[in-house]
Amino acid sequence: MEVIQSPQEMQTWSLTRRQAGYKIGLVPTMGFLHEGHLSLVRKAKDYCDRIVVSIFVNPIQFGEGEDFDRYPRDLSRDLDLLQKEGVDAVFAPTVAGMYPERTRTFVETEGLDHKLCGRSRPGHFRGVTTVVSKLFNICLPQVAVFGQKDAQQVMIIEKMVRDLNFPVQIIRGDIVREPDGLAMSSRNVYLSPEDRKKATILYRSLLMARDMIREGERNPQAVRNAMIEMINQANGAEIDYVEIYNGFDLSDIEEIKGQVLLALAVRFGSTRLIDNLLLEV
Amino acid sequence: MEVIQSPQEMQTWSLTRRQAGYKIGLVPTMGFLHEGHLSLVRKAKDYCDRIVVSIFVNPIQFGEGEDFDRYPRDLSRDLDLLQKEGVDAVFAPTVAGMYPERTRTFVETEGLDHKLCGRSRPGHFRGVTTVVSKLFNICLPQVAVFGQKDAQQVMIIEKMVRDLNFPVQIIRGDIVREPDGLAMSSRNVYLSPEDRKKATILYRSLLMARDMIREGERNPQAVRNAMIEMINQANGAEIDYVEIYNGFDLSDIEEIKGQVLLALAVRFGSTRLIDNLLLEV
To answer: Which chain A residues are Cβ-neighbours of B138 within 8 angstroms?
Structure first.
């Protein structure tokens, strides 16, 4: 497994592999890897001959006062995990390597970015689409795998790829959960033991909503209210959003039918967790 | 020479050539080709084995009330000219082919885009950087050639390529001029015979400025004023801008030294012409 820091070397590495006829799969991450990330690596292997994992905590997708500085990092542990998965190259650039001069170019996908996480994190998705464009141009993958946990992110990236004609196929990886249902996240380590227990309410509220819908409820407002009520029973859970949208384009819906995204973001102390469920009704 | 309309076919064409080891050069144009464009094609041949010329009048870089509808077009004449130059493929998509769904993703290079043409054409360069990103992703060139006549455009594209790590080398092609000095432009056909004669004042004002600087003038304001005075002597010439900036980043300068860009845009009737001179002082 090669560990590459320089964007130029990474580009050369990928160009050489492509020239040799290999299909490259990219799994972009911010590191501090867990089973969720590793499942994306395994998924990439189903489609590709050579796997690149990028590890980069991207400053331009964090807002003022967000957790860029304290975002958990452990490169040597990450490298061990990726080595065991049989990854071919890890692209782990520095901030100065990715942004060597004052960057002035931004890629922005409008319309999908002002809802859900975009509302509480202005500029976040512009930072994501910009760095993913850079990673595509540097790692030159034919396939890139993104986790469904960041549902809005993968929808925005799919739209960006279509709009800008990136020659990259986007694959979604399923959410991986702890045994008690909590969606795996690098940020889970921030949780106090009590909040860690309380946080299971997020997935339970999604399952409860799924059951309501299965039993015939079609009013998004009714389902949403039941979820909010349930989450509020967890002492100290502070809801950022609980929303039900069209699962293709995040448009508002008046009736639950077709592909529907149930999505939520909730704070426990200073830790913000997200989760979602994509349903076909 | 192959004429390709579909972005997907174009991508496949380029991927196949790259896989075969060829180096692809792209010359992006809006068609209605003249010697200036053909000189860019010849320049591309100095660097590449396979030449792609794109012909696309890009609606999103034209503002309200600009000349998108009446921009001159003559595809069959363009194809004849390119055939004679030994071009390998012409990518001539339709607007619906390039923007098949409501496009929501834009690439924007800030800071360089609010001066010169960016000031009088808000949104213009966002349209340019977006479509050039698309063309890079579709035609997958290793080299792209842009004319120095659109000096601000090529500077913005060079910055975009650096910021987003596009694996594309940008080459600048010199301005090609008519025997009387007028910079070649597809828009020159709009000019009335009288205005066509008057328009030579643009290049003459640049040469006069160069002479002033050669003779020791270092005050940009003095040079600029002399150019404005000269251009205003041409009856009916309406100045959009006459500016002198740092030739690397378009920053303001108080003294003429180093690389300096003299740039102007002037209207004759409804026809807006641009010209420039890059000087090393």
So the answer is: 165
Do residue B29 and residue B54 come from a single domain? yes
Nearest Cα to B120, choosing from B251, B239, B276? Answer: B239
Q: Is A104's CB within 8 Å of B106's CB?
A: no
Give the separation between CA A161 and CA B134, rounded to whole angstroms.
10
Structural domains counted in chain B: 2
B88 and B37 inside one domain: yes
- Nearest one of B174, B173, B241, B179 to B205, comparing CA atoms: B241
DSSP lists the bridge partners of residue B278 as B261
User: How many helices, marked H, and strands, marked E, lie in chain B?
Assistant: 10, 10
Distance CA A87, CA A41 (A): 8
- CA-based nearest residue in chain A for residue B8: A165
Chain B contact for A108 (CB, 8 A cutoff): yes
Q: How many whole angstroms separate alpha carbon A11 and alpha carbon B162?
A: 13
Mean pLDDT on B17-23: 96
- In this complex, is the C-beta atom of B109 within 8 Å of any C-beta atom belonging to chain A? yes
Residue B45: pLDDT band with limits 50, 70, 90: very high
Domain annotation covers residue A180: no
pLDDT in tens, B227-257: 999 999 998 999 999 999 999 999 999 999 9
> What range defines the domain where residue A261 resides?
186-276
pTM: 0.96
Do residue B52 and residue B121 come from a single domain? yes
d(CA B61, CA B69): 12
Q: pLDDT by residue (tens digit) across B30-44?
A: 999 999 999 999 999
**A114 counts as catalytic:** no
Note whether B106 contacts A105, CB cutoff 8 Å: no
Is A181 a domain residue? Answer: no
